Amino acid sequence: MKLVIAEPLHIPQKRLEELLRRTVGDRMEVISYGTPPQSGEELAGRCREADAVIFLDLPFSRQVLRQCPRLKLLCTLITGVDRIDLPACREQGIAVCNTPGYASNAVAEMTFALLLAVTRKVVACDRASRTQQGQRGLMGVELEGKTFGVAGAGSIGLRVARIAQAFGCRVLCYNRTPKPETGFPFVDLDTLLRQSDILSLHLPLTPQTQQLLNRQRLAVMKPSAILINTARGGLVDSAALAQQLQEGRLAGAGLDVLDLEPPFPPEHPLLQAPNVVLAPHIGFATRDALERRIRQLEENLSGWLGEGVPRYPV
């Protein structure tokens, strides 16, 4: 059998070798690629003879899967599976597993790192301190008493809601399926947009949520509102958001994700917009989250090789 590591996993090489030695041993031939594939055709070529594939975030479309007749396991090292054609996997008998919740705490903390950087002008404060500019123009706002909207009540969204509550915020949630058992009030999306002083996105990217925050929906938000996105860049119309910020129709934004992956081109509209704090899609990246990811990968491989079922099936 062949195990293909289809792209760099950002796991220290020694740790990865030890993990594979414990779980796979000599039961599978391991083929590893040091760069991401640049096309679906290249991805299919890498996986054509694979029985199992480990990867971070690659587009396993129906067309790619059709070219992989031996494939029995797709193991992604992230939580989201929106780039995998799950119906096609079921039709071909391919098991899919992920690493659920490995970075929930990391992303929730990053949400507030970005939020506080915006509300307390942390980047501008640092720049002013280094250039002897003083305190002018650095007045911030507090979180206590603000209405905090959480769009997406999964594990990350609910962690964010609890932290926001601890800051003294009034929390409102939106989810496709409301979860009253959480103790948080759930409202429709329009109400969330209109009432939130802070809106934090924690939704998956699907055809239904693509550019969920389009020009029309952004326009109903308060001019004093702040948008935080640590989920998927495609949830937001970047050009419309940049225009809202340029025209003062939104107070600020903290974004760990844009509509493309870093490095960002210098002409991207949000790089020119005011009151934006950006991060290069790094909300998940803590040592603690990496350890959880490694452990869950080992559990998935051991379960699949031992009992035929990964530990964290999708």
TrEMBL record:
Organism this protein belongs to: Candidatus Anaerotruncus excrementipullorum
Domain D-isomer specific 2-hydroxyacid dehydrogenase NAD-binding as annotated: residue spans: 112-283
MF annotations from Gene Ontology: NAD binding; oxidoreductase activity, acting on the CH-OH group of donors, NAD or NADP as acceptor
Family: Belongs to the D-isomer specific 2-hydroxyacid dehydrogenase family.
SUPFAM superfamilies, per the entry: Formate/glycerate dehydrogenase catalytic domain-like, NAD(P)-binding Rossmann-fold domains
Protein's recorded name: Hydroxyacid dehydrogenase
Keywords annotated in UniProt: NAD, Oxidoreductase
InterPro entries: D-iso_2-hydroxyacid_DH_PdxB, D-isomer_2_OHA_DH_cat_dom, D-isomer_DH_CS, D-isomer_DH_NAD-bd, NAD(P)-bd_dom_sf
Lineage: Bacteria, Bacillati, Bacillota, Clostridia, Eubacteriales
